[in-house]
């Protein structure tokens, strides 16, 4: 398994994708998925029971993960707390989202489809923090394999899926300019706009296969086609893309999310090629060379 080769002095606009973790079968990915499922289950449980104290506790470890150098890690102010920025929105969204409350939205990876202000960057940050210990283990193994020197660093905010708490530990990691570096398997990253593409794809699927065939939903839609024909654009005009709407539709049409995943999304999910990764990581060098 190869780790991601990145630029240590610049932003690398690649983002960890929990969906790619979910479909991977290697031991590291399986362990990552266990962490994600445990964290998400605990968070949902506390929010649904209105246990605000424990909601804050389980979100307390959400600080910007700069060690992987992915996303906007270099541009962001070091140490900013993810939870301070999005915690109120995330908690409110979970509390008010009927899909979450009903139990239909049980996979963390699906939040990109239904919760506002959550896209590739934030999903990657949150996922990185949840799976950080597994990434540290992966890094140590890769460094041993390739003979990369290590230094001891204290790492805060390590999520323990057994205690379900955030812990502190001392770990041996590679370093750059005196700061720790954590490697990421290259098969679990995606491009920045992937979350928005998934959302748009899901919306089109919902319109085409469910909304357009529901007489109650299209009753007040004004057709613009020849001879009064109802077109998909007419339905889209009546029901513009909205995460709130998609949450409600998922409740109305119980199979919609399952069908979308099996018929469309599963065929779209794939690891990036080496060329796609190089185009992002070495964009400046490539542009100069051309």
Overview of the molecule:
- The protein has 290 residues and is mostly helical.
- It is 52% helix and 10% strand.
- The protein is built from 15 helices and 6 strands.
- The strands form 3 sheets. Strands 1-6 form a two-stranded antiparallel sheet. Strands 2-3 form a two-stranded antiparallel sheet.
- Helix 2 runs antiparallel to helix 3 and helix 9 packs across helix 13.
- It starts with 13 loop residues before the first strand and ends with a helix.
- The model has no long low-confidence stretch (mean pLDDT 89).
What keyword list fits this structure?
mainly alpha, 290 residues, two-stranded antiparallel ribbon, 6 strands, single chain
Please write out the topology.
Blueprint: E1 14-16, H1 18-23, H2 27-48, H3 52-59, H4 82-96, H5 98-102, H6 111-114, H7 120-130, H8 132-146, E2 151-160, E3 165-173, E4 175-176, E5 179-180, E6 189-191, H9 194-209, H10 215-218, H11 232-238, H12 243-252, H13 256-268, H14 274-281, H15 283-289
Antiparallel strand pairs: 1-6, 2-3, 4-5
Ends apart, CA distance between termini = 31 Å
Described by strand count, sense and barrel closure, the largest sheet is: 2 strands, antiparallel
DSSP strand (E) fraction? Answer: 5-15%
Count of distinct strands: 6
In sequence order, what are the helices and strands, one letter per element?
EHHHHHHHHEEEEEHHHHHHH
Which regions are unreliable across 5 or more consecutive residues at pLDDT < 50?
A: none
Short structural summary:
By secondary structure, the protein is mostly helical. Helix content is 52%, strand content 10%. The strands form 3 sheets. A two-stranded antiparallel sheet has the order 1-6. A two-stranded antiparallel ribbon has the order 2-3. Strands 4-5 form a two-stranded antiparallel ribbon.
């Amino acid at each position: 398994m190869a780790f991601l080769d990145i630029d240590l002095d610049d932003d690398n606009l690649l983002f960890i994708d929990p969906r790619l973790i979910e479909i991977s079968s290697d031991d590291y990915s399986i362990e990552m998925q266990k962490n994600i499922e445990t964290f998400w289950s605990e968070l949902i449980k506390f929010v649904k029971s209105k246990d605000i104290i424990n909601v804050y506790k389980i979100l307390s470890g959400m600080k910007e993960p700069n060690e992987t150098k992915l996303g906007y890690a270099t541009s962001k102010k070091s140490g900013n707390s993810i939870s301070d920025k999005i915690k109120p929105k995330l908690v409110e969204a979970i509390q008010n989202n009927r899909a979450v409350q009903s139990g239909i939205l049980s996979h963390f990876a699906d939040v990109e489809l239904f919760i506002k202000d959550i896209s590739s960057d934030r999903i990657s940050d949150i996922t990185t923090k949840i799976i950080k210990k597994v990434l540290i283990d992966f890094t140590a193994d890769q460094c041993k394999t390739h003979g990369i020197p290590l230094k001891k660093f204290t790492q805060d905010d390590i999520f323990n899926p057994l205690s379900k708490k955030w812990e502190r530990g001392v770990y041996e990691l590679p370093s750059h300019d005196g700061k720790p570096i954590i490697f990421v398997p290259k098969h679990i990253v995606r491009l920045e706009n992937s979350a928005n593409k998934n959302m748009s794809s899901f919306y089109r699927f919902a319109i085409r296969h469910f909304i357009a065939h529901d007489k109650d939903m299209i009753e007040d839609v004004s057709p613009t086609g020849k001879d009064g024909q109802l077109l998909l654009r007419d339905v889209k005009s009546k029901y513009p893309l909205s995460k709130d709407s998609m949450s409600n539709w998922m409740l109305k049409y119980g199979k919609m999310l399952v069908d979308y995943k099996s018929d469309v999304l599963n065929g779209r999910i794939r690891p990036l090629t080496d060329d796609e990764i190089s185009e992002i990581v070495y964009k400046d060098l490539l542009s100069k060379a051309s």
